[in-house]
Amino acid sequence: MKDFTFYNPTRIEFGKGKEGNIGQYVKEFGVGSVLVLHGSDRIKKDGLFGRIAASLEEQGIGFETMGGVISNPLISRVRDAIEVVKQNGLQGILAVGGGSVLDSAKAVAAGAKYDGNVWDFFVGKAEVKEALPVFSVITLAATGSEMNPYGVVTNGETQQKYPIGSPLLFPKVSVINPELMASVTPEYLAYSAVDIFSHCLDLYFTASFLPVYTAALIENILESVMRTTNVLMSTPDDYDARGEFAWAATMALNGNTFVGVEGNTFDTHMIEHAMGALYNVPHGAGLAVVLPAWMEEIKDQMPERFERFARKIFNVADSEEGISKLTQWFRSIGAPVTFAQAGLLEDAVDPIAENAFGNAKLWGMEQTYPKERIAKILMLAVK
Amino acid sequence: MKDFTFYNPTRIEFGKGKEGNIGQYVKEFGVGSVLVLHGSDRIKKDGLFGRIAASLEEQGIGFETMGGVISNPLISRVRDAIEVVKQNGLQGILAVGGGSVLDSAKAVAAGAKYDGNVWDFFVGKAEVKEALPVFSVITLAATGSEMNPYGVVTNGETQQKYPIGSPLLFPKVSVINPELMASVTPEYLAYSAVDIFSHCLDLYFTASFLPVYTAALIENILESVMRTTNVLMSTPDDYDARGEFAWAATMALNGNTFVGVEGNTFDTHMIEHAMGALYNVPHGAGLAVVLPAWMEEIKDQMPERFERFARKIFNVADSEEGISKLTQWFRSIGAPVTFAQAGLLEDAVDPIAENAFGNAKLWGMEQTYPKERIAKILMLAVK
Predict the structure, then answer these.
(1) How far, in Å, CA of A186 to CA of A229, rounded?
(2) DSSP states of B178-207 as a string?
(3) Residue-wise pLDDT tens digits, A70-82
(4) A290 min Cα distance to partner chain B (Å)
(5) DSSP state of B138
(6) Which of B10, B13, B14 is the best mutation test for A, with the most CBs of A within 10 A?
(7) Is the ipTM of this complex over 0.90?
């Protein structure tokens, strides 16, 4: 067992209608006003925004509203939001949406208490020393951002998709109401499932030491995601399946899977962030392309781990068959597993590899992943 | 999925030598002085107390020391400790020991900020409104008290073994260093394993709704406990096994196993607390006696759950065989599974049933567990 610190103070309020108490949750933390940050205007049409606004008003919480956060969220929008927060002296950020909105909210929370350029936090030029409290009501389960202190934002000018992180960025309270996710499209459900797989498998296949307990926890998350995704593809309003899927997403990146683990890295994310930064590929779609190719490339480094995966997840004996079964499953839920399926041309391999190598350098992985090796992995997905 | 709130702000510092940083952890919370609460004087002989004292002194944290907390800890000792805390104006409690010390520390933390009788919190006469911060360095992994807001203390005068609980009683920081547990006797290792089983199975066999994910999480904890206990019985200083065992103990009662669960109760604890209160049976020993008998009594209420248990944990098809395999395993690690093995006479059945029925009333379980049914379960263990 590697030494570790486990600390996760986020309170999860899980269940039907809990977004209706959001004003109360915010008030408990002594926060008198918030920026309600969201993506499209769908939440204004479907009544979610109305319920949240009513709850805030009932508790006397003032708020401003800003939408327009897109998938692969942009630092420019974060800057706009920081302006609004500063001008209005808002005391907290309430994210309503999926991972992009939450990730942006964290950047806004840190940036609002910082006099410099918020991008400094992403490129390692500054550390978060202070941040506004973040709250969330999630409408999509995938990134785990509702219960972790990380965010990923894209800088359009520099074409960098980079992470921010600080213990100060744990959301205070996150509402997970599975009912709010019943309208997620099959496409985004598939992307979400792949994202969760990738959070788990990056760790599972790179850890130099993985306690048996932690391996089994990860396998449990994967089993849960596969089973519930299959249910939800035909029965989108199955509340229990939606709920279990959501909790699996949260567990996949809230610290539990890191317990006692040594030497893990975020390889597929390192590569996928380049796809998102350059070609605006949806995160889960990019990961679906990268993950099986990456597994193919590294499978001989950890034969026992790959055999265990094949046996535990797909009940087959052979590593290669395990990878093939995973690819088949991705296909079956409609996730793209080739460049072409993700709308990318072979020409994109070189720029993606170049950009990903930039990530590798920032994350201290340039020894393991020279540009040529990244390109080799990507080529496995060009078919 | 049942609605739930997940909130667990305890920070776990897990690893070799981490007790040597305890002064720093305490200081981070602005606490300038603590009561170091412990059990026997073993920690003074083996150097642990010295390392902790040195760390506190290094950080300028003043402290008083009080030992003498016994297994099935007494409210009288808690009252002594509250006196010392009040007289010295101490600002926090640092528990060094196992579950009994931690549970006592929580009662002291609440009692030190309360003008009335600390036992009020146990019998529902008062609610914890304020408490001193609790820290811990654990030397035995079993109760999960290091990462939850509960404690169980015995009132010798009234012969009641009752729980206290409040979100204010989550430890701020708990140190789990598996090395400190290498000297746990095989007897107490067995009791600890049984305690963890009981935390898990009380829930597993009573929940009216148990998400598949949560069922599998519990099975993972049980598998981990069995495997590592078997290793530790022959190789007590296997660090990884000790570490995995410790984390399984923590996970069994830190909120994760309650996720989405409906209708669970603490049946074996309700009965065992009576054994501890009346006959001072070690908690894990009492549970080893009660658990298989209780399973026998209730097995027809949830046939699918018992079949799943038999299949997943012991790879056998039949419920009855699952119970029998569990009993055999308890025997194999030296845990008592009959009244006689726990040093109890058949005469004890009636007083235990009477006392346990008192718990059933306090916990709202008197409908399900009239005294006669409790006696019937106990009689199954008299053989």
Answers:
(1) 9
(2) GGGGTT--HHHHHHHHHHHHHHHHHHHTT-
(3) 999 999 999 999 9
(4) 27
(5) E
(6) B14
(7) yes
